[in-house]
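Attaching the record inline, Q. Sequence:
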Amino acid sequence: MEFRELTISGAWEITPQLQADSRGLFLEWYKAPAFTDIVGHPLDLQQVNCSVSAAGVVRGIHFADVPVGQAKYVTCPSGAVLDVVVDLRVGSPTFGRWDSVLLDDVDRRAVYLSEGLGHAFVSLEDRSTVLYLCSAGYAPGREHGVHPLDPTIAIDWPTTDRHGVTLQLQFSAKDTAAPTLAEAESAGLLPDMGIVQEFVRSFAP
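Structure, as predicted:
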């Protein structure tokens, strides 16, 4: 299992070692000791979510108030998605920037994003399935979003699926109505980098 920190601090790409033969394959998707060694604290698992999406469906950009926040360990066991991490922490040197990882049923990578970061993905195949290990349960009062097409963030959403077929992007009504990054910042909705760092440090064993 290999960890690679993304260009946004607090987010990692995890590549498992696949053991394959004529019967199929086996992998270790999550290992607590390896995770704790790299991230600096254990994952406090509180909820597991599963979504299934048609090709072109965009989910996000979603984030939660810090504290408590919601860290996520995400993979795609079936299909393919482009998973996107957005730095929404006011005061971060990479504020407003994004990075992405292809999650699919070939390389079977995962992404971990810590509290305070925004999360989104686009499905690159019909019935793409995404699993999320979450550090906190869903709490509508502290869950927020930023518009996935915000030109300031300028996510380079793919225009074709993984077979080269043109994608028609689809958004939920909630995500379409989400504020821009500037509007969310003006409304005081975005996490503060200093508060996030202090909160995450409190997890250290």
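The chain has one domain: 2-201. The first strand starts at residue 2 and ends at 5.

More tomorrow.
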